[in-house]
Amino acid sequence: MARMSYAEALNEAHRIAMRDDPRVFTLGEDIGEYGGIYRVTKGLQAEFGEQRVLDTPISEIAITGAAVGAALVGSRPILEIGFVDFVGTCWDQVFNQAAKFRYMTDGRASVPLVIRMACGAGLGYGVHHSQSLEAWFTHVPGLKVVMPATPADAKGMLLAAIDDKDPVVFLEHKFLYEVKDEVPDGHYTVALGKARVAREGADVTIVSWSGAVPWALKAAEQAAAEGIECEVLDLRSLVPLDEDAIVASVEKTGRLIICHEACTTGGFGAEIVARVVARAFDFLDAEPRRVGAPDIPVPSSLALEAVYLGTRERLLEEVRAIVS
Amino acid sequence: MPARKRTSLALSNKQLLRLYEDMSMLRAFDEKVSERCIRGEIPGLIHLGVGEEAVAVGVNAALQPQDKMVSTHRAHSHFLARGADPKAFMAELYGKATGCCGGKAGSMHLADPEIGFLAANGVVGGGLPLAVGAALGQRILKGDWVTLCFFGDGANNNGAFHESLNLAAVWELPVVFLCENNGYGISQSIHKQQRVANVADRAPAYGIPAEIIDGNDVLEVYETVRRAVDKARSGGGPILIEAKTYRTTGHYVGDSESYRSKGEVAKWQAKDPIVRFEKVLRRKKLLSTALKVEIEARITALVEEATDFAMQSPAPDPAAALTHVYCEGGA
Asked: Which end of chain A has fewer CB atoms < 10 Å from its terminal CB, N or C?
């Protein structure tokens, strides 16, 4: 075990994978000597050279397609796209190309690709650098969608994603990069599709992922002081989804709140509510609640951005309301 | 442009006859596809390669077995030239369980990794970045393949084209970009879509050499692509070849073709690549009428066999629609 940040844990996962397997390489804008805008690839080019840690032009269509094509012929690319907001520029290569190969060839081709992208608000970056777009990816059969919340999961899930034979969209919340925690040494994987009980509780289930997990834990702590015990479930990945873990928790608590940073309408919270209602309706003691952002773009002014991020403060009120 | 070295690239008589037979087979196959599509037996959007056979056959003759090919929505001739099994291909077009992709690909999304045919594409321009990636993968994996990337004139105003050329140039990747310029993007002539006269005119802006060739001359296609492929394989970087050709049938089976005159089509039919090459072979005394009849009989039998196989094959089990979404299986 070593104490390290989420960004350092991701860096270590890259090193381990690239040392173990010469097919693994990484490409992206400013990821070489510069080390990436979040320092995730710091020092990799010095160790592995310019041929395996490729700085690219600002050319998202070509670099994403190049990663897909390289995966298609048997290499193991890890592509960094600095902000998930930029995926619109290369969306065809993600949802029409990467996602479809296995299916359209009836299993004869695969795209073992990891696309790392940063998401999330809170830094005043504004409308083009702050969004949480995970629901888009979950709507595309063929993509896996991974959103770890802790340094240990970041490392273990990135290694699992690199091993995976499918294209994995790996979303990293900007606020998590500097979070430090204990991380196991060496190579290990955290399975995609297995949720983590981040806090046990008997009264309310709070389902969250990525940057919203710390919010849920904080609200749970505050609620505990008021005598309400929340169970916080960190989904870790949305596709595959650990539906059984959600249902098991709701069967225990009878109350469900989904907390995500993304806009509420069409957010993944709606999918979870629908599934829980279908499978565990009789266990519900109250209507499920979605706690997400208002349906607005992310404004730059911190005073305005706080409205977009109002979920953080609202969550405790929703916990109180659902048990009343 | 370097001087032509015809002798070093010279094909044997057997190989020359093979080019003729391959082109004729592609033509017969697509004519059968058209007939069965009009009959309602083959569903979907079907884009034929009639009139463009010299490009597909000339290109493939210049490739090695380990080379990769990336194609477009007009993929039939590329796929067959590369060596696709006609029976499994026809069954795929028919949407049968015995199709090469189990009926999930159809005409526009064909692929066969075993013959290095990486992908057709339903999206104009979608294949160009994939080809750059196949070449990047060659470098990472230390393979010895060259990637041949077909694209149409319609793709050269798409961002994917420009980004792909630039990236391939910056990384000096072994890609041959082969523009099959048939003059039209659906109904719009190339002259309505851009000010530069040639697709090849784009290449120097990215530091890529380019050549313009007669796409209806199978030998010119073969020789030019062969030199480009050899150069790319020896580390010479990417190159763009623009093959001027014409589709003598519509954009898709069922196209009204209201955007062009019968006279224009007839002018190009007079330059039919198969008829032209037949004259070359006859001048060389390689093709007699008796041999032509023999070849035609062989092709007819092959196409009939493929069509019968497709017709008699079972439809896929509906349960197959839910498989191969992920490596673990279904949805």
From this structure: C
Please tell me the total count of domains within chain A: 2
Q: What is the CATH number of the domain that holds B130?
A: 3.40.50.970
Highest mean pLDDT among A144-153, B9-18, B181-190: A144-153
Find the domain containing B62 and state its range: 7-322
Number of domains in chain B: 1
Cis peptide before A112 (omega within 30 of 0): no
Closest Cα in chain B, distance from residue A26 (Å) = 11
pTM over 0.90: yes
Same domain, yes or no: A120 and A200:
no
Q: pLDDT at residue A123 above 70? A: yes
Task: Confirm if B215 and B152 have CB atoms less than 8 A apart.
Answer: no
Cβ distance A65 to B324 less than 8 Å, yes or no, reads no
Residue pair A316/A219 in contact by the 8 Å Cβ criterion: yes
Q: Which of A158, A183, A208 corresponds to the end of one domain?
A: A183
Asked whether residue B226 is domain-assigned, the answer is yes
Domain that holds residue A157: 2-183
| B177 falls within a domain | yes
pLDDT in tens, B286-327: 999 999 999 999 999 999 999 999 999 999 999 999 999 999
CB distance B184 to B260 below 8 Å: yes
Instruction: Please report whether residue A191 resides in a domain.
Output: no
Contact A56 B113 (CB under 8 A): no
Active site residue A14: no
Q: Give this complex's ipTM.
A: 0.96
Residue A179 lies in a domain: yes
Residues of B in contact with A73 (CB under 8 A): 68, 118, 133-134, 137-138, 141, 143, 145
Residues of B numbered 268-287 whose beta carbons fall under 8 angstroms of chain A's beta carbons: which are they?
none
The answer to whether the CB of B203 falls within 8 A of the CB of B238 is: no
* B contacts of A69 (beta carbons < 8 Å): 70, 118, 129-137
Q: Are residues A301 and A216 in the same domain?
A: yes
- Please write the tens of the pLDDT for every residue from B115-139: 999 999 999 999 999 999 999 999 9
Q: How far is B268 from chain A (nearest CA, A)?
A: 35
Q: Closest Cα to residue A262, out of A135, A141, A139?
A: A135
A/B interface, count of CB pairs below 8 Å: 155
A228 in the same domain as A111: no
CB contact (8 A) between residue B118 and residue A73 = yes
